[in-house]
Amino acid sequence: MIDIIIREFDERDAETVSRLIRNNLTFVNSRDYEPAVIDYMCRLFTPDYLCEISATRTMFVAEENGKVVGTVGLEGDEVCALYVDPDVHGRRVGERLLQCVEDFALSRHVHLLHLSASLTAVGFYEKMGYRSQEKEESELFGPAYIMTKLL
């Protein structure tokens, strides 16, 4: 059994979380997106950017044996930037992070969540009870699906 701890993001996590996100984009999302989209997103998710956005959203990290292996954020009613270290995919880290965000949202009296799911992650979110509402196209971020879940 894996011992995963979910805790709030701290600015000291920024370098590790940035690397984790870039690894995900490069080795996982790159199967579904054009190189220009992956390149843009890798340049976006810098440690400084993560510290900046942590001021307006609640961010969590998953730790296994002291190593950060996943991250997710919640800004109002929007789930943001759920990424899991490719080395621990399939070990329910993403499920744990999403459940944490959903519980946090409920504690803030938020009962309907939405997110922009990458093509790579649509199946995961469907399994977690999210329903696709519409497809969106972005020149910078590529195609994604707007998904919602009533908590």
Description:
The protein is α+β, with helices and mostly antiparallel strands and 151 residues long. The chain has one domain (4-150): Gcn5-related N-acetyltransferase (GNAT) (Aminopeptidase), CATH 3.40.630.30. It is built from 5 helices and 7 strands. A hairpin with a 2-residue loop joins β3 and β4. The longest helix has 15 residues, at 93-107.
- Mind summarizing the main beta sheet? 7 strands, mixed
Mean pLDDT: 96
The N- and C-terminal alpha carbons lie at a distance of 28 Å
What is the topology, as strand order, of the major beta sheet? Answer: 1-2-3-4-5-7-6
Give the full name of the CATH homologous superfamily.
Answer: Gcn5-related N-acetyltransferase (GNAT)
Characterize the overall form: globular
- Listing every helix as H and every strand as E from the N terminus to the C terminus, the arrangement reads EHHHEEEHEHEE
* SS-based class: alpha+beta
Low-confidence stretches: none
Fraction of residues in helix: 25-40%
**CATH class call:** Alpha Beta
Q: Supply the number of helical segments.
A: 5
CATH architecture grouping = 3-Layer(aba) Sandwich
Query: How many independent structural domains?
Result: 1
In CATH, the topology is named Aminopeptidase
- Strand percentage: 25-35%
* Rg calculated over all Cα atoms: 14 Å
Number of strands: 7
